[in-house]
Amino acid sequence: MTSFIDKLAWVYLVDRQVLCARSRGKDTYYLPGGKREGAETDQEALSREVREELGIELIPETITYFGQFSAQAHGKAEGTVVQMTCYTGQFRGEIQALAEVEEVAWLQYKDKTKVSQVTQQIFEHLKEQGLLA
User: Fold this and answer.
1) Extents of the domains making up the chain
2) How far is the C-alpha of 77 from the C-alpha of 59, rounded, in Å?
3) How far apart, in Å, are the Cα atoms of 34 and each of 6, 55, 71, 127, 130?
């Protein structure tokens, strides 16, 4: 039986590198974001998660749908699929590692073995679009 994990992610690119985060005590990087709480919209949940993880404020009018990706969830039982709805957007503030985030890093396509399966799919898409070095 397949179970689904519904997540939101922020795709932020600078100089053909994508911003990723690594949680405390983990060795896998992921795109900043997380799960909805209650009746939050995608934009509300994404903004809250990014604020909690990175200490920045996404600018609501710049948040744009990027795509949806799914794969086996990292570290979960076989058949547990994470569905990642991704958005881009500009922000105010200075990026820093907060809450469960131990490290933020700028990754390139060559780093795709350091990220979860669903993030690898996003890396493939970014590379195909010429957006990731």
Assistant:
1) 3-128
2) 36
3) 8, 14, 15, 23, 26
The tokens describing 38, both together, are: 């209650």
Strands (E), the chain: 3-10, 13-14, 17-23, 29-30, 33-34, 57-58, 64-72, 80-88, 91-92, 101-107
Integer CA distances (angstroms), 133 to 10, 17, 47, 111, in order: 18, 6, 27, 10
Q: How far apart are CA 99 and CA 104, in angstroms?
A: 12
7-28 per-position pLDDT tens digit:
999 999 999 999 999 999 998 9
- Please state which architecture CATH assigns to domain 3-128: Alpha-Beta Complex (3.90)
Q: Are strands 80-88 and 3-10 parallel, antiparallel or unpaired?
A: parallel
- For the entire predicted model, the pTM comes to 0.92
Helix (H, G, I), strand (E, B) or coil at 4: strand
